[in-house]
Amino acid sequence: MMTASQFSEEEITDVSVINVRFPTSATSDGTDSVHTNPDYSVAYVTLTTSNGNHGYGITFTLGAGTDLIIATIDILKPLILDRSVRHIFTNFRAFYRSLTQHPRMRWLGPEKGVVHLALAGITNAVWDLGARLAGKPLWRFVVDMPARELVGMVDWSYLSDVISEEEAVAMLEQSEVEKSRRVEHLREVGYPAYIISAGWLGYSDEKVTALIQEKLADGWTAFKMKVGVSQEDDMRRAALIRSLIGPHNTLMMDANQIWDVPDAVKRMKELSVHRPLWIEEPTSPDDIMGHAHISQELRQYNIGVATGEMAHNRVMFKQFLQHHAMQFCQLDSCRIGGVSETLAVMVLARKYGVPVCPHGGGVGLCELVQHYSVIDYVLLSGSTEGRICEYAEHLHEHFTDPAQIRAARYVLPTQPGFSVRMKEESLEEFKYPDGKYWKQQQK
């Protein structure tokens, strides 16, 4: 079992960040009711140490605005440079708070929006570096840490009214004797996934039909579709997809925040005939009480509410859980502040009995969240019942260690790191605005 004190004293000597943009709008990949022409993009962070080692991290955007995140990371660089890896991991809570509580930058948050997206890019790279130096995939790096040390890395600020650090330690320690068995189970069968790639709103019926038939042949049993443009169109597309997947496979729906609360209730009562497992983001991502009302109204139809991909920090999740406003905790690996804050959210979800089903619809997100689903299973839930991780079948070819799917399940990652190192040829091609692809578009 590795502890943080076993790291070397090598220091972080360089922090570089570039804008990488993929032209997904050209094929309508990623389209939904409010994001009608997304170009999947990342702020791609590379850390370099005095020994020549590297850590890689991303934070996800839809194209415009990535430069704001890059500018924020540049401002935060002095807080990272010249720190030893050992110092960071033996004092991770203090390191994390030095970024979130920057006396001038926190006015732009705190712990939300562009500054928190930038924080995620940095901390994802730091955890990737730590896992690489340990020679372990990120999930293994985390689950091998002693429970008390891991809890000590988390900023539990504003959560003491619902959970104590000792309670969190006890939760993690309960899994100690089961860790090996749980890991072996995932090694044998993988972690269950659902697919969004056939359900984008901009796809024609013909394309949706062809993709679903293809995915059914590949063994997929859970599918998500986008809704929210017109009820007539939603009903027609839902009927099509349900007829294709049959009565026994699982259907989810995602409105991407487009409805007011009464509209969400009305629309979903009508769509309930197609038996969706959940409605995702039915209204404003900040409207906790609205989500609670929708949850209550839809309970009789056996439709849960999934949300969290736009919930900007652990405090939001605390309140969603307190008010029974989410039935599926859909945390995002780049929206909140990296591994330590994600662990806080997963511990809260475990306490309130809400399954963690991470958001994976974006470039590099599947690579990241597969590790979180493993951590949640091994350290906290010990079960995949009611739990499923999103998979989007786009852009994995640009990563050196892409997420792997076998029989509609994530294959347990085995390579060191957080799985988001990008291929050099992909960076050269899609760096924005001066990569080969984007230069060609300017001609």
Written account of the structure:
With 443 residues, this protein is an alpha/beta fold. Helices cover 42% and strands 13% of the residues. The chain contains 17 helices and twelve strands. It has helices at 66-76, 85-90, 92-100, 113-134, 138-143, 147-152, 165-174, 179-189, 205-217, 231-245, 261-271, 288-298, 314-322, 338-352, 365-381, 424-430, 436-441; strands at 12-21, 41-49, 54-61, 191-195, 222-226, 250-254, 278-280, 304-307, 328-329, 389-391, 405-406, 409-410. Strands 5-6-7-8-9 form a five-stranded parallel sheet, covered by helices on one side. It has a four-stranded mixed sheet with strand order 10-4-12-11, covered by helices on one side. Strand 8 (304-307), helix 13 (314-322) and strand 9 form a beta-alpha-beta unit. The radius of gyration is 21 Å and the shape is globular. It starts with 11 loop residues before the first strand and ends with a helix. The relative contact order is 0.14. The mean pLDDT is 96.
The average pLDDT score comes to 96
Biggest sheet, in brief?
5 strands, parallel
Total count of helical runs of at least 4 residues: 17
Look at the helices and sheets and give the structural class. alpha/beta
User: What ranges have pLDDT less than 50 throughout 5 or more consecutive residues?
Assistant: none
What's the gist of this structure?
The chain is α/β, with parallel strands linked by helices and 443 residues long. The chain has helices at 66-76, 85-90, 92-100, 113-134, 138-143, 147-152, 165-174, 179-189, 205-217, 231-245, 261-271, 288-298, 314-322, 338-352, 365-381, 424-430, 436-441; strands at 12-21, 41-49, 54-61, 191-195, 222-226, 250-254, 278-280, 304-307, 328-329, 389-391, 405-406, 409-410.
